[in-house]
Amino acid sequence: MSDRSSAGEALACALQEALPVGSLVVVCWRSAYGRLSESFTPGVEAPLRADAGALLERDPPAVGASDDCGGDRIEAAWWLEDGSRAAIVACLPQDLPTPLRAAWLAMARRIVAADLSAVRAHARAEALEKSERLQQALYGIADLAGSGLEMTDLLSRIHGVVCGLMYAENFYIVLYDDVADTMRFLYFADRNDPYVADPQRVIRGDEMPTSLTLALLRHGEPLQGSSAALRDLLGVPPDEYHGPDSADWLGVPMRRDERVCGAIVVQNYESAGSYGEEDRALLSFVAQHILTALDRFGAREELERHVAERTYALQLSNRDLQAEIIERQRSERLQRALFRIAELTITSDTLGRFYSQVHDVVSELLYARNFYIALLSEDGDRLQFPYSIDERDMIRESRQLAGGLTEYVIRQGRPLLADRHRIAELNSRGEVRSHGSAAHCWLGVPLYRDDSVVGVIAIQSYSRAISFNARDQELLTFVAHHISIGLARKQAQDRLVTAHGELEQRVASRTRELAHTNAELLAQIGERVRAEQKLTHQALHDALTGLPNRGQLLERLDDAIARARREQRAFAVLFLDLDRFKLVNDSVGHSAGDELLVESSRRIVSTVRSNDTVARLGGDEFAILIENIDGLGVAEELASRVLRTLGEPCWVAGREVFPSASIGIAMWHPRYRNGIELLRDADAAMYRAKGAGRGRCAVFDEEMREQAMRILDLEADLRRAINGDAFIAYYQPIVRLDDHGLIGHEALLRWRHEKRGLLLPREFIGLGEDSGLIEEADWILYGRVVTELARGGDGYISVNVSPRHFRSGDFADRLLRMIDEAGADPRRLRIEITEVALLDDVPRALRMLRNLRNHGVLAQLDDFGTGFSALSYLHRFPIECLKIDQSFVAGLVGESRPESVAVVRAIQALAGTLGIHTIGEGVETEAQRTALRELGCTYGQGYLFGHPGEHIRSAASIAEGYRSGLLESDAVAAFADGSGLIELGADEAFPAEADPIDSDRVEAAAAKAASTLIR
């Protein structure tokens, strides 16, 4: 016998109490899974136990059957309702009457059944408790992997999780590179071994040839036992360098793609045999989840590194852009200065005013607090200063040409930039002799007229904090050239005014006429100015509401960003969108919609501060710029106030309307470079609020930003995947439900991602639909399917066609052309469409389906039952098959069975009316297949018959897979039960003819046995 039952001797003793004193009882049973157990009373010898075991091995004729030897011995064996066997042997000190023997035997069967049921319940409870602890541990590991903990804290907490599953006080994790034969101790905790692990240290295999851990990694299979026994097994000599020996040592490898990449080891220095097979299996299971957690942690670090690199690249790009902007602004300032100098030659009434205004222009470009213009006299002997502003030399008198810096520039005919040291050097060489106060830095450039130097324009600084450079020299030289031209023009104008002074009287009358004409021109100019102002206002404001428009808002946002950078004052942007505004336009007209927009804008303006900006961006979208706020709370309070004000009822076109809105909030952050980025993030937050139920606000946060970056990266990967042909076809078989004969396959789209592995459509289909790239991926799938059809074979292949393809008028022609070019049989191709594709454009869909059917390509209606599912439209289309949605198939077994049966029966009736067949999708259990067959469904598809794979399945492999599917289904059911045991039915009753003489003793014995089992 293999072991004793959980009740020990209680079961046999309970049965013995109903027999005469001195009786011996042996009960043994074998479960449906082959496990042998027994219970016997004290004093039972081995031969009697052997007789009971031999009796158990015989095959009883039927459930509940037994044999009775008569006399002083009772023997019986029978089948229990769960498929297990039981046998009982009782030796009596005296004969018992037949009725009493039968009554006792019936009672024994009942008590044995109750005993086994209680044992199994207890075992299931223990298994469920272990399963719950394991599940909580795995959830804990998954949560830790997604947390922001550092690696040391992460591994320490994982150690704590493992300690909750088994004895793991001495625990370590090692990573292994099987190619380089190196390892790293990622985590090490041991109460007896003082070794301190360095996660960054790479240890070569030849450095630790006597390490039991290295032997485990090279062995590649779990090891359990004492350290000495394992070294003998693996041929590893003892080495005290690697720590003390343990009484029990358990290590399991971690695998990635069938390659050993690390291991987890637990040790017990005190108790031998403390780890069993269950602990080994449990640690192996947990090890893979720990590896997954480590991989997720590594992926997160890689993502953070990638984000940091991209952020640095953006910073460099932003720096270059800022430099370019500064250069452009400088060029614009210079251009404005030149235009203004040219204008001054006309508008300045005197040369003195012209010089003063030129000084103002130069001051806008560089430091010109000390500025003068020097000109040569007509005879060239004197130097005159028609204009001079200086903080030290208030007056500059004209003088004879001498050796000053000004004369030096005139003699050389080129600019001079000199600091205090250069000026002293020129003085020491006798080339110049300074006049006036000594400057810290001096810059002078010559003024030319007809290639001759006629003067100098100079600026100087008396402070060490202000110096000029070559760029300032270049700028002043460029400006001086235009000043020379303007000065010559102004001098010529002044001479012309002087020369024609005597003509003033003669032209007085003409001047009056010109004055009248000029008045008319001024009136026209005024009208034009007013028109320009009106156009400017219209260009910066919304015509309907009078609010600032997008252009003006972006300008103010850019100004706000500049102020925030300078003054470090926060601001926020609120992006507002009216909910269900299209319903107002469609129901009561656009004029009513305009009234609602005007009323909404009025209400929004009434809720904000006087210095806040409310703008209409277009349609039903508004934006609010609030500056100088203390934090996010101010913006959220304003958003709540706007929502309350907007939510008050109003009358539009004679109807009472209750407007509502969704608001997105984006707070200022230094990463924003312009207003467009702020509006973009506020818009994203608004869509988050609208998706959460409308009539509320949401704040843009880092999660949204990271999600946007993930979507951007995935879209780029999707484009590369299309260009790199990374999409493949997986085929799932479709079979007959009665004999499992193969009739075809459904081709399913898969993406073999270079980093994330195999991706299902649900992970990228939404992004593909939004970007329009999913159509290109679909055509790659169609090409692979057509190529597969061209190879020949039996059965058809169906492909899914989205409504987007049906909106394209050339879809059918393109598909048929692809089939023809590949030389495939179009009759072996099916297209699966949804009800949405049919009803989107009925005439186009009907033409397309008829065209495909005429060439042999039939159509199947996918996910039937989840849409309109009405005969009123279905009979108009050439549909070959209805595919029953897997939600209804799953509901055929369980609490929702009545509703699902009714739906499937209705679908079958509809299909029968149309003369088409049906396919049940998502068949995973034998019970679902049986229910579908009973309801009249002919064909089925699901995991019960085969999982999707890269290759077409044969009929033989489908049959083998079906048998494996049944076994897998049983295993899943047993695992879900918690112990692998099937629950028994109701207890077997006493036979009607039994003698009730000992019924009180029987009930008491049963109660005692049950209480013992519970304890």
Explain the overall architecture.
- There is one protein chain.
- The chain is an alpha+beta fold.
- The chain has 5 domains: 6-125, 2-Layer Sandwich (Beta-Lactamase), CATH 3.30.450; 146-305, GAF domain (Beta-Lactamase, 2-Layer Sandwich), CATH 3.30.450.40; 348-490, Beta-Lactamase, CATH 3.30.450; 541-700, Alpha-Beta Plaits (2-Layer Sandwich); 714-963, TIM Barrel, CATH 3.20.20.
- The chain contains 30 helices and 33 strands.
- The strands form 6 sheets. An 8-stranded mixed β-barrel has the order 25-26-28-29-30-31-32-33, surrounded by 4 helices. It has a 6-stranded antiparallel beta sheet with strand order 8-7-6-11-10-9, with helices on both faces. A 6-stranded antiparallel beta sheet has the order 14-13-12-17-16-15, with helices on both faces.
- Strand 10 (248-256) and strand 11 (259-268) form a beta hairpin.
- The longest helix is centred in the first third of the chain and has 71 residues, at 277-347.
- The chain starts with a strand and ends with a helix.
- 31% of the residues are buried.
- Residues 1-7, 61-67 and 967-1015 have low confidence and may be disordered.
What is the terminal-to-terminal distance?
24 Å
Count of extended strands: 33
Count of all domains: 5
Assign the CATH class of the largest domain.
Alpha Beta
Query: What is the CATH superfamily classification of the largest domain?
Result: EAL domain
Strand content: 15-25%
Sheet with most strands: strand arrangement: 25-26-28-29-30-31-32-33
Overall shape: elongated
**Which whole number gives the mean pLDDT?**
81
Low-pLDDT stretches are 1-7, 61-67, 967-1015
Helix vs. strand class: alpha+beta
Q: How many helices in DSSP terms?
A: 30
Alpha-carbon Rg, integer: 47 Å
The CATH topology of the largest domain turns out to be: TIM Barrel
Under the CATH scheme, the architecture of the largest domain is Alpha-Beta Barrel
Fraction of residues in helix: 40-55%
The major beta sheet can be summarized as: 8 strands, mixed, barrel
